[in-house]
Prior knowledge:
heterodimer; A: 162 residues; alpha+beta; two-stranded parallel ribbon; two-stranded antiparallel sheet; 4 strands; elongated; B: 488 residues; mainly alpha; 2 domains; 21 helices; 75% helix; 0% strand; globular; disordered C terminus
Amino acid sequence: MIYDKLTPFEYLEFVAGLWGIEAIAAERSARHLLRWLGLLDQAHERCERFSKGMRQKVALAGALVHDPRVIILDEPLTGLDAASSRQVKNVLRERVVAGGTVILTTHILEVAERMADRIGVIAAGRLIAEGTLDDLRRSIGRSSSTLEETFLTLVADRATAA
Amino acid sequence: MRTVGLALLAFAAFMHLLAYGIVGRFAGVHAAEAGTLVVITGSLLLSWSLMVSQAMESVTRTFYARSDLDLILSSPAAAAKVHAVRIAAIALSIALTGTFLAAPFINVLAALGGARWLGLYGMVPAMGMAATAAGIAATVALFRTIGPGRTRLVAQIIAAVIGAAFVIGLQVAAIASGGPLSRMDFLASDAFITHAPEASSILFAPARAALGGLRDLIGVVLASVAVLGIAIVVLAPGLGRCVLLTAGISHRRVQREVQGRGFRPRPPRRALRRKEWKLLLRDPWLISQSLMQILYLLPPAILLWRGFGDDTDALLVVVPVLVMAAGQLAGGLAWIAVSGEDAPDLVGSAPVPRAQIIRAKREAVLGAIAVVFMPFLLALVPGAQRLAAVTALGIVTASASAFAIQLWFCRPARRNNFRRRQVSSRTATFAEAFSSIMWAASAALAAAGTWLFLATVAIAIAILAGARWLSPAHATRRGIPAVQFASP
């Protein structure tokens, strides 16, 4: 969802303009995000030359530059290397600490286990369980299972019930 | 299936009827007639130049499209063989396309002028093979002289220019000669024929082959096969290296310092407009496609120059050409801005009213049109203010109509599919074309000072109303979901 022919700087300037963000504040936020995501050196290179991970980071910066209260992200860590993944997680954590809400989908259960305050389990297009990790563990009668074990148990139980 | 078959039959019948109107009167010509060979050679050269243009575009896509690169180069087949097959596939595609398009004309000529014209069924594929060899050789030569980074843009521009150059060149020469404006009449004129080679010249071999000369036909076909074969043998081994070098371009990192320019305050509409212009100016492919349409403005530019200070009646010819060109160019730009929006979810979810988004895109398109056509209008002003005013109004209405049609038939697509935009919605394509024609006719009639222009304006408005009624956008009001700016 980014423009190949724009640079990250231009893309964020465009998003800020769309959202009516004051120019100086938007630029400050953009530079902070690009630095945080490790893209400051490429701020004036066109996105068409970027790898998939870099493009995802630019898109994430675009989602954050206007300081939204709620962010919904679909698989934001897919395809990212370890360093990029760490950068994205740090940015999202910072957003939550600042009072925002982040809703993300992921198939990487370790990420959900470590990052999320609340977790929703979706199977066959339906939300079958929702709560903190402890809530989910209690629902399957185990107090120390990993999220992966909890998830698989919930999905299996759901399939059996169906 | 039956409906499709009937539709194809109807289309074929229409094409043959069209061919009859264009070439039917030439079916009886013979090689002995003065000027015949010149006119036929000119027509064949025109077709060949279009094929070369197509070949260069195909080869450029082969170089720069990397979707199957890893698969091909990791296969057990030798890369040179793979690329030889690719070249042959391009030649086959061009030959088949050319034959398909030429078939109605060949059939009509054969039906009216005898079986000798069937030799064209051998000529057209031969031309396709020769065009492929020329196109590939030209592209590889560019690659080796200016490098992979610049070849794509330059090759696309040259392909666009070659495709139009011969047509435009003939038209410009016809205009400049002061004689009849028809390209074919110019070729058949005494002034041109006296400088033409002898009828037995080898340069006229393709024309003699087209007229039923079997020996010439065999010679042309064999020569074309030989040229293509040589191109494959010589160029296929090096093609793989070219492809690999282009693959390296996308990942090359250009280290630049963070520049000092800060964010500039812009309201949403201005930000959207600026974004559209920037994306267009930075896309060589879109520029070359748009350039092709602009090149056809060269003959009216020459006509303007010729008519400057002279009888303004001659300038009446310019008015409908400019209006038509504006409508067609605006349609392409509108498709890019509306359907070719790369981030529809981003734009759609912004706190900007949809009407403002549409207005910004319309302003971007009309602004680009203004930049292209302003020089022509300014050239008209000194000697023909009324014509300039009528032309300006025609340009605005044709462009606005084209934008409206693209908006009503908005269907999210990738900008790379710009060439296929005309098949994505045939209703929109026909509506846009007929709308431009009617606005051009209206401008011409208004410029000529007759009230008949009101009739063509009414037809243009009716076309727009019909397009609106048939559009998906109107379908939502009838309870059928339509495509919005957000992707499905």
